Amino acid sequence: MNIKTVVILTFAVLALPGHAQVVGPDCGSLANAYGPFDYTNPDHFRNKLPIVEYEHFDAGVESLQGHARHRDWLALDIDYTLRAFPNHHRALYAMSRYYLTRQSHGRAPMRYTAQCYFERAMAMNPADGIVRMIYGLYLFKAGDLEGAEARFSEAVKRSPEDPEVHYNLGLVLAKNKRWDEAREHAKRAYELGHPMRGLRNMLKRAGEWE
Questions:
Q1: Amino acid 105: pLDDT
Q2: Considering the entire predicted model, what is its pTM?
Q3: Which residues of the chain have pLDDT under 50?
Q4: How confident is the model at residue 2, as a pLDDT?
C-alpha cells in the first residue's frame, strides 16, 4: 500500500510555527523540545527529519519490531517521532497499526490515543490530505465505516490528484453499496494511475462496473 507516505474537533486550532498550539484537553499541545515540524515542508523534511528518524524511526520501528539499538522502546520511539513531526505520514500509519494490533496483545500504550495523534496531525497542517487518508484507513480497519468515509472525503478535497485517496474512498463507498459514487472514485483512481484492481473487481462482482 502506498503511504507516502472525523472532522477536526472544535477545540483544535491551526498550527502556526513558533506557537504552542493547544490541540485539546486530552491531546496536549504541539509544543515540543524539538519541533514541532511539518512533514510536508521541504526544508523540515530535508534538514530536520533525518535526525529524528535516525534516533527514533528506523525500519524496525516502522515494522513494529523496535529500533535496532533499543527494541524495547517501540511505543516511545513512535510517540517521539509524532511529537517532533505530528503529521509524519509513515509514523502515523505505524501508530495506527500499533493500536489495531500490538496494543491489543498487551503492548504498552503510547502517550495519547490513536484519535489524539490524528487530531494533532490535522492541527499541525490542516491542508495535509494524506493525514486524513491514513486516519480513514485506521477507522476503516477498526470497523467505523461512517468515520472512514468522512475522513476519505476530506482527503479527496485536499488531495484531489492523489489516486490513493480516491481508491480508498471508493472502497468504503462500495462497502456501503453506494455504487454510483464508488464507481466515480474508482474511475478517477485508475485515471490517476492506481495499480490495484481490488476495487474494480468488487464493482464487477456487484454488476456495477461499466
A1: 54
A2: 0.84
A3: 1-20
A4: 45
Q: How many Cα atoms within 13 Å fall on the side-chain side of residue 191?
A: 9
Residue 73: predicted pLDDT = 86
Confidence at residue 106, expressed as pLDDT on a 0 to 100 scale = 54
Residues 150, 65: Cα–Cα separation, whole Å: 31
Q: What type of residue is 157? A: K
Helix axes 74-84, 114-124, angle to 10 degrees: 20
Q: What per-residue confidence (pLDDT) applies to 21?
A: 64
Using the structure block, give the residue that is written with the C-alpha cell 510536508.
40
Place of cell 512533514: 39
Q: Return the closest-CA partner of residue 85 out of 130, 151, 35, 126.
A: 35
Helix segments in 159-197, DSSP class H = 163-175, 179-191
Residue reference for cell 486516519? 135
Please give the span between the terminal C-alpha atoms of the chain, in angstroms, as a whole number: 26
The Cα-based distances of 76 to 3, 84, 104, 210 in angstroms read 22, 12, 17, 49
The C-alpha cell 484519535 sits at: 115
Alpha-carbon span 166 to 155, nearest angstrom: 9
**CB–CB of 40/129 below 8 Å?**
no
d(CA 45, CA 99): 26
Quote the CA–CA distance of 126 and 158 in Å, as a whole number: 9
